[in-house]
Amino acid sequence: MTVPRCYQLCKRAKYAYFGVQHSKQCWCGNSYGRYGAKPMSQCKQRCSGNRKTFCGGNWRNIVYSTGLRSSRQLPGIRHLGCFLDKGSRDLRKYAGSGRMTVSKCYKLCRGKSYMYFGVQNGNQCFCGNSYGRYGVRRITECRKRCSGDKSTYCGASWRNSVYATGVTPPKILTPGLRSLGCYIDRKARDLPVLAGRGSSMRIPVCYRLCRAKKYLYFGVQHSNQCWCGNTYGRYGVRPKKECRMRCRGDGSTYCGSSWRNSVYATGLTMNDIMPGLRYIGCFLDSANRDLPKLAGKGKMRIQKCYQLCRQKNMAYFGLQYGNQCWCGNEYGKHGGRRASECNKRCSGDSKQKCGASWRNSVYTTGLGNQGETKLPLSHCSQHSTTWKAPCIRAIDGNTNQHFFKHSCTHTKTAKGAWWQAKTKKLARITEITIHNRQDCCAKRLNNFVVKVDGRECASYRSSAAFSVRTFSCHLIGRVVRIETRNKVPLTLCEVQVFGHYVVARAWPPAKGVRYLGCYVDNKKRDLPLLLNSRSKTTRNYCYKSCKARGYRYFGVQNGNHCTCGNSYGLFGRASEKSCRSLCQGEKSTYCGGPWRNAVYTTGVSRPLASTPGMTKLGCFIDKTARDLPVLGGSGSMSAAKCYKLCRGKKKRFFGIQNGNECRCGNHYGRYGRRSQIECRKQCTADKTAYCGASWRNMIYTTGLDLATSSVGVRKLGCFVDRAKRDLPHLYAAGHRTNKAFCWRYCKNRGYKYFGLQFGNHCTCGNTYGRYGKAKSSTCSSVCKGDRRRKCGGAWRNEIFTTGLRSRRYKTPGMLHLGCFIDAKARDLPKLAGKGRMTVGKCYNLCRKLKYRFFGVQYASQCWCGNHYGRYGLRDKNECRMQCSGDKTTYCGAGWRNDIFTTGLSARPKDSAYLGCFIDNAARDLPKVVNAGVKANSHYCIKLCKRAGYKYAGLQYASYCTCGNSYGSLGRVSNKQCKMTCKGDRREKCGGPWRNSVYSTGLKTRKVSTPGLKYLGCFVDKATRDLRREAPKGHMSVPKCYRFCRKHKYKFFGVQYGNHCFCGNHYGRFGIRPNTECRMQCSGDKTTYCGAGWRNSVYATGLELAST
């Protein structure tokens, strides 16, 4: 086998393609590739007839084209598959037989405008517009060669190779067509009307049939049936896969299945099938029927009631309670309700709403009411004018919707752009029709409101544009206004108003009468006086009734009630649409609605009175033990009169009760607050205002504030408190707690500061803030005596100054040291005075006596001393007794001293601190005194100086050490001398074996002693080390030096403070440490003169001649 040989074989056999395989096989066909392509590397077996070329591989074809033409080159042709055929043919039209090819059958069927053709058994041609009714088969079952073209296949026995001709069916316009889903059908059909059936059925055909019959919905079923109806879905919805039977007339789409409808909308609306139908709203009904004629009941829906009432020539119909149909030429006499109250499903169509119990869903039948006519408009105006398009174009009768045909208005771009016009007379406006611009920009008019005399009657908000739309209104007035809510230009091509004129009564009846709005009411009554006026009910009647009783406002409610009061709006505002019940005494106007007051002013004004600072606080309970204790007056009473009475009594609050009582006080609210509804008795002297009620005070402020900055009161902030009080004096003020009361309470007791805590406590003190400041938000408890204000919080003080100040004294150097315990053996020993004591007075007394410290105790005692603290320090809380001579300061407490410094110097001026030095048992400073609680620098320096020492040391907090030299054991850091002195807690007194060393100010007397040199400390005995003894007595080192030098001795020694010895040699008994020679000289205590049997030995500076 070779490639050229295989080519000739397959071309001769009329095949389009050939393949060489396994080096020696040749295969022919009209299609290829059903098993996929492979890499050429798998087709590398060499041809048996030509080893230079490849001939496929094992189960691998190298495929070539023979060059013969394939049916694929015919325009629009598309192979659809192999399909089963039967005696009742799948493709109905027999086109021919004989020497058949695919292209020949294609031309026969395309010429007859068929969408599909099939070749069968190699020689037959069939045409049709649908296929596949008997099912699809494998492509291998359609492999019989065409009798006219062996290169292609033409089906097989009872098997069609089906192709598309490329012809498309004529398009049927289907505006509004929308798929709704797959729904169950039964013998009692879901869609009741059979519009058609047959082999040409497809979706557009059924759409056209049902739309022509004015049905809202259609369904295609079992591939060839078309059903129509205005409702659907009564047997339930199913998944779309259950509606997968191909349409007989279009095999590319589905037409339901057995007992399954593929349901679609025709695009028609209720107005299309029921001309003139329009939903008006939900309206109240009663035994005295709003729509008087019962047209039918039972299985009810909108279409049925529409037809029943239209047959009776009625203008309106209403559906009630799901199954009732009522007709009439008027509606709304019992008032409108919210649309949500008409939500009962229709018994004949669960997708529709048919009113509710005593609620009508009202519609128009389109026949019209004899009284409703088109009302001419005039006196137009608009927000602005551009494009030379004035307001008159919207009422000129020209409904052309093309702007450039000079029929439409045009304003400037603005938010709230408006257009308005007036009717000839007062009218009840039922409908307003607006013609929108259509040549462009229709979507500009997609968010606007329609108003009549300023009251909204309709609105529109949608992303969709409209051409012409009618709005239901039902308001009485003259001025019709259209106002945008978007920032757009307002363009109107025509505005038409429908309704009828009404007889206008004089309104408003007097100057000052003004409509305020529609307001909610309930059993507690927004306007407290209710008059059941029934058939008399008109706005004029209610106005006169309420004005005669002195009220400022009146309301009309539900068409048959008047309400009066001096305030309104307690329960909030309501929609204007809910105040549309017709007045029973004047059918042309509205008088509120069910539990809705249309509120007006009566024109009665409140008497003018100057009441600066007066603020209404609310309604509060009173009892026999009065909340406001002072009776200001009774009789003919008003708020202004009571204000003057209580302000004259210097009270911060006043309350009026039972219409005629005036009560005053500085705190209020102890029995609790009540709703303002309970304080609505008219004042006897001013009927336009309320003056409480029985045991109810309407409370106001007089504007007085006793605790003001003018008297020195200043807020300091919110501070933390604890069990050991920051401000020590605590008073449970209860219902009296407010700023003014606590200020007065603490000031009268002489305190500098006052605080309010937890809404019901006063706290007083002379200092504050020891526990730190708190967030102001934590001081949020309401004052029990003034609910407008905050009085601290839980463990939080809101602190203020009282305005009191401490007495001023000149006290230089005074420093507070703390609170210290005292006992019978006094800590500060000197009692300087007692009686009317102050800190400044005690300072002066003790400073005059030259004491360094003073303490005030038990409010009236003054104690002085030079050391303190022997019994220990206590918390400052224990020293907070007010001074008897100045209550703004503290003077200790029982057995507690509040101790201060007098400012006198702690040590002599010639004394100086020298540092921290090591000590041990041999003592750096030899004299040691246990000073105990007296230990401080002042005491020890004085002690050592009096003893004649040059240096003083303080050790281990309570010891004084003295000496004439220091530092023999070395110096250390001051940090090692940090023990607090027992006699002065401000100072440091050394540490363990550590001396804080000071100079005492004493100095050694200067004497000329040439050649004098200290040699050390030496032992002496009865047989003297230095043989010559000088006279003893008032001895010093210079004195002994002069004596021994005079007698020509080389050395001298001072011993035991008053002995002098001379000699020319020394040391025979040995040397000792200097610490054993530290007895003060009797003649100069600033120097040492040996000790018992110890000589401090010196050289005189003389040298003996050598022999």
Automatic annotation (TrEMBL):
Keywords: Calcium, Disulfide bond, Glycoprotein, Membrane, Metal-binding, Signal, Transmembrane, Transmembrane helix. Residues 1-67, 76-166, 176-267, 276-366, 512-603, 613-703, 712-803, 813-903, 910-1001, 1011-1101 form the WSC domain. It is found in: Membrane. It is a single-pass membrane protein. The keyword Metal-binding applies. InterPro entries: FTP1, Galactose-bd-like_sf, Kremen_rcpt, WSC_carb-bd. One of its GO terms (cellular component) is plasma membrane. This is WSC domain-containing protein. It comes from Macrostomum lignano.
